[in-house]
Amino acid sequence: MSEKYKFFEGGLFFVTLTVVGWIDVFTRKDYAETIIKNLNYCIDNKGLIVHEFCIMPSHLHLICEAKKGNLGSILRDFKSFTAKRIIEQIQENPQESRKEWLQYMFTFFAKRNSHNAQNQFWQQHNHPISLESSKWIQEKTEYIWNNPVKAGMVDEPQHYIYSSAYPFTELKIPK
């Protein structure tokens, strides 16, 4: 793997976590709120620091770092837990009209990856990009904030509730 896409201790990174097949899962409020809840858990208990974020229908963008240790380990644990929890939520949700199809897709992608026994929710790679200048940080922040605007989901970045641009976000972001 290229050095360009590796975590290292003490770094600030732009990371994208993507659902397998770019499946739109986070269109349901319950699933997006599971992401917020578990990011907050990692902030409180694992040393994750999230500076910027945006939950799109099929992926999640973060500008983040670890207080200490390896950010990759924190994100691995986050992805493992949220994958299990969201798949459970899908199975338990009586309003989930795509339940069978989603389960089929998660099983399909698991068969293509020897690391997964039954289901694969997240794509395996995060492609972390080290942010080593204020110019890069600003560029990625603007990208994150404008992602839902470019997707036609809102007219202004601050109107998208699953973003750090939203002034009332429930995610614990340092001010």
Nutshell version of this structure?
The protein has 175 residues and is of the alpha+beta class. The protein has one domain: Transposase IS200-like (Alpha-Beta Plaits), CATH 3.30.70. Helix content is 39%, strand content 14%.
Please give a structural write-up.
The protein is α+β, with helices and mostly antiparallel strands and 175 residues long. The protein has a single domain, classed as 2-Layer Sandwich (Alpha-Beta Plaits). Helices cover 39% and strands 14% of the residues. It contains 4 helices and 4 strands. It has a 4-stranded antiparallel beta sheet, sandwiched between helices. A hairpin with a 3-residue loop joins strand 2 and strand 3. The protein is globular. The chain starts with 12 loop residues before the first strand and ends in a 25-residue tail after the last helix. The model has no long low-confidence stretch (mean pLDDT 92).
